[in-house]
Amino acid sequence: MNNIYVVRHGESQWNVEHKHQGWHDTPLSELGIKQVEAAAHRLHDLEIALIISSSSRRASQSAEILANHLHIPKETIILDPDLRDAHRSASREGGTFSKEEIYEFRSNLDFKMADGESTRDLINRTVAAWQRMEAHLTVDNNILVVTHGINIKALMWHALVLLDAVDHNPWLISNMVRTNNASLTTFQRDPEWADQGGVYRMVGYNDIGHVEHLLSALTGGSYEP
């Protein structure tokens, strides 16, 4: 059996300012660093063989902090660009979207701007990254994935074989479930479960027990159109 631990990056400065980050390399805020350190303490006694991270700076910086606390060489971290946040619009990074635009993103998996991607595009590349992660699983090793809020939701629905439900209700991938900064989501994988609906079980989602005292009222949830 394997455990796959998925951590959302810590708070970034653009989280605080409610700016669209997309693929822009925004660093962690001071509070974000403390949040990730708290997540590292939460994971400290778990045997983690490998860290795979989004290549965006706020995620890779989080991964480096986690690796340092978990005594995992930073040079072994795998950076996967397909785990990056939603690329809604290159020209709007650092800006915001109108309520109407946010509604379109959240209610239509195929809505996209000329210089961005759709939610379906994001889901497909995130699932591809998850499948590459699976190639690193051995009989009983554990892997830590560091990524972004909307990607965690995509991974959840994929692992639970419920992406069809997202097709019927796109709001499931946006704001019907929350992913806080530095939260922990845990999956277990056992091939023997294949005839029981799928090889994954989700045993924890958006666990914030370790970081609840560090969540800012301003960024307690996540800004993700």
Give a written overview of the molecule.
The protein has seven helices and six strands. It is globular, with a radius of gyration of 16 Å. Helix 2 packs across helix 3 (57-70) and helix 5 (119-134) crosses helix 6 (149-159). The chain is an alpha/beta fold. It has a single domain (2-214), classed as Phosphoglycerate mutase-like (Rossmann fold, 3-Layer(aba) Sandwich), CATH 3.40.50. Helix 3 links the parallel strand 2 and strand 3. It has a six-stranded mixed beta sheet with strand order 3-2-4-1-5-6, with helices on both faces.
Question: What's this entry about, in short?
Answer:
The chain contains seven helices and six strands.
| Number of structural domains | 1
Average pLDDT figure:
92
Which structural class matches the secondary elements? alpha/beta
- Would you count the extended β strands for me? 6
CATH class: Alpha Beta
Beta-strand residue percentage: 15-25%
CATH superfamily grouping? Phosphoglycerate mutase-like
Kindly report the CATH topology.
Rossmann fold
Biggest pleated-sheet summary = 6 strands, mixed
Write the CATH architecture name. 3-Layer(aba) Sandwich
Number of helices: 7
